[in-house]
Amino acid sequence: MTAPSVHEEPKATGTPEYVYAEDLMPDQAWDLGSHRLTEEEIVSFARQWDPHFFHIDPERAAAEGHFGGLIASGLQTLGVYQRLWAEQLSGHLRLIAGAGLDDVRFRRPVRPGDRLTGRSAVTSVDLEPARRRGRVGLRGALRNQHGEPVLGLASSVYVEMRVA
């Protein structure tokens, strides 16, 4: 079953058509676009947030590391997913806030030059009419340019319900 897209044409007034919690359904999915990670991005991020040698020192990573070269931090990979998700969906969803992040799996190393492509799918929608919101379960993934999974995760967000 193909679910309606969250990307609707703007109304004549220029106001986007928003998607509310009750518009969402399990198995509804979106392609999130892609991002190519450069060596400079990997090293810069890791120097600030995850300064292991296999993220910041290409020569040592190649000589001593288990991965045969420089790899991106898993936290950076997760950040790429979040950026793609936010750019594609948060402007359309009547998003309130993130509710949780579970089952994060780093499936394979991300290397300089890898193009990561994202996808997100609704797994559940639990409406809370008294609070005018729904808790939406999501399953997300990133794949590299070879179609190999590099990240998998489950998350949940709070999305507004329409005002009655």
TrEMBL record:
SUPFAM superfamilies in the cross-refs: Thioesterase/thiol ester dehydrase-isomerase
Organism this protein belongs to: Nocardioides currus
PANTHER family per UniProt: BETA-METHYLMALYL-COA DEHYDRATASE (PTHR43664:SF1), MONOAMINE OXIDASE-RELATED (PTHR43664)
Family in the record: Belongs to the enoyl-CoA hydratase/isomerase family.
Pfam families membership: MaoC_dehydratas
Domain MaoC-like: 35-125
Origin: domain of life: Bacteria
Protein name, UniProt field: MaoC-like domain-containing protein
InterPro entries assigned to the protein according to its UniProt record, in alphabetical order: HotDog_dom_sf (IPR029069), MaoC-like_dom (IPR002539), MCH/BMMD (IPR052342)
